[in-house]
Amino acid sequence: MSYLIVNAARSAGTIRKTIYGQFSEHLGRCIYGGIADQDGALRPAVLQALKTLHIPVLRWPGGCFADTYHWRDGIGPRSERKTIINTNWGGVTENNAFGTHEFLSLCEQLGCEAYLSGNVGSGTVQEFSDWVEYCNMPGVSPMADLRRRNGREAPFGVRYWGIGNEAWGCGGTMRAEYYADLCRQYATYLRSYDAGLVPYKIASGANVDDYHWTRTVVERAGQCIDAVSLHYYTVPGPDWQHKGSATDFDRDAYYTTLHKTLRMEELVENHSRIIRRFAKGRPIGLCVDEWGTWYDVEPGTNPGFLYQQNTMRDALVTAVNLNIFNNHCDTVVMANIAQLVNVLQAMLLTEGDKVVLTPTSHVFAMYSGHQGARQLESYAETRMLRRDEEQVPELHVSASEQPDGTVLITAANLNDTEPVPVNCLLGGIHAAGVTARVLAGAPFDHNTFDRPEAVRPAPLAVTPTETGFTAVLPPCSVAAFTVCQK
Ligand code: AHR
Questions:
Q1: Residue 195, exposed/middle/buried by CB under 10 A (0-12, 13-18, 19+)?
Q2: End of a domain among 341, 373, 405?
Q3: Nearest CA to ligand 1 atom 3
Q4: For residue range 150-189, what is the model confidence (pLDDT) as tens digits?
Q5: How many domains does the chain have?
Q6: Do 126 and 269 sit in the same domain of this protein?
Q7: Chain center to CA of 461
Q8: How far is the CA of 270 from the centre of ligand 1 (A)?
Q9: Four-residue CA torsion sign, 42, 48, 50, 56
Q10: Are 132 and 147 part of one and the same domain?
């Protein structure tokens, strides 16, 4: 029997909804053939599925694409929009049918906030500043008038703005010192046009463990920004040429994947420590605006489109990362899994009009009760699995309390073959009843267009005790326990 302990007396703070954010780039079939058709119109079956996901914030238009994107190409009459080449992703043509209005209308229909990534790598300060004015200016101004001529009277009210993307790489191959100065300049001209809406400025952040980048940006540009980003992808293979298959993997690859994804905790803690040290008292957050698994593309698909399947292994990766973000909610202000549809660790896969929910999307749904809740300290007394250098804990957990007193405990059993009986001890929680759901299967189980519900959540038996409850977590599973209080 393993113990899970939840202590309501201690909390790291509120889990911002934005930790459950998503990312949608002009890449492969994420936008065209995923969210929208070639004319930029939203695809009804996808829109319907997206509405079930409780998305709090959606990042767009990239990724690497953002630093080649000129927003004026994507506004106004379709027939007058430029056709360009998507030089980052497959060299395909981009007709700009899906632009600012189409994206922000999608966000309105999903009831989520928009997070726009501005072009720093190949754009100008004026261009970026104009985009903010175009989206947010309520009164009379050149950009607000242009927006009105394009059919939109009210401002869109975009709060989140990314100052470039991966400026150390596809966003300009810059040195941290150079980017920090540029970031100050750009940030200065991202104005507030409405007293109630101050732009939240997110600096382009580090690649994995580039702590020099975080330190330099926070030290030199900290006075101009609200958050700094971090990108970390879980790649099971030894290098980017041999990332590994999404579905055809052995036990070693399974545990290597989990071991690598657990590194997110070390990265979040180290970057957060640096931010705290060099922010000089300013509340600068960490925004993990790209994370998730990155495998070899599905055989026979365009290598530039990054289309991959999604299994129970991905469900565990999701559970581990969301637990980490919940438990570090004092500094992690936002996270955006890559990506929403048909790209990398997607929520949805599409084929024609068919839409499949992935195991990853089910974990997001099971965890949705954490959004906006108060994190509770939790601890798993658990054994470690596997080899010395690649150990992973058998259990991984986080917990939170909603304003009405409902407690959500989310726990993953990382053991691929053995069930784990758990005894959950609830400190300072007066349980009146417990229900649970579980997502379980073999590590490589996944949903297909022929078997779209092969992996889906099911009820899990729980037994109340004087001090909490007991349950048995199946091998390779993610469970969500909902505790109602007296
Ligand atoms: O998500 C795919 C790509 O990964 C993004 O465009 C880029 O920012 C990162 O390298």
A1: exposed
A2: 373
A3: 63
A4: 999 999 999 999 999 999 999 999 999 999 999 999 999 9
A5: 2
A6: yes
A7: 30
A8: 22
A9: positive
A10: yes
Q: Can you tell me which atom of ligand 1 is nearest the CA of 25?
A: 6
Residue 125 lies in a domain: yes
Q: What is the pLDDT of residues 80-139, one digit of tens each?
A: 999 999 999 999 999 999 999 999 999 999 999 999 999 999 999 999 999 999 999 999
Does residue 4 fall inside a structural domain?
Answer: no
- Residue 476's φ and ψ, nearest 5 degrees, are 45, 70
Q: Which residues contact 74 (CB under 8 A, 6 or more apart)?
A: 81, 96, 97, 98, 99, 100, 102
- The pLDDT of residue 395: 98
Judge if 131 and 188 occupy the same domain. Answer: yes
The pLDDT value recorded for residue 389 is 81
Question: Of all protein residues, whose CA lies closest to atom 4 belonging to ligand 1?
Answer: 63
Domain residues for the domain of 451 are 376-485
Question: Residue 260's pLDDT band (boundaries 50, 70, 90)?
Answer: very high
- Looking at the domain assignment, is residue 398 inside a domain? yes
Residue closest to 86 by CA, chosen among 23, 19, 170, 13: 170
Best substitution site from 88, 173, 231 to test ligand 1's pocket, by max atoms within 8 Å of Cβ? 231
In the predicted structure, residue 195 carries a pLDDT above the cut 90 = no
pTM of the model: 0.97
Give the residue whose CA is nearest to atom 7 of ligand 1: 63
Is 211 part of a structural domain of the chain? yes
pLDDT in tens, 113-125: 999 999 999 999 9
Write the CATH number for 416.
Answer: 2.60.40.1180
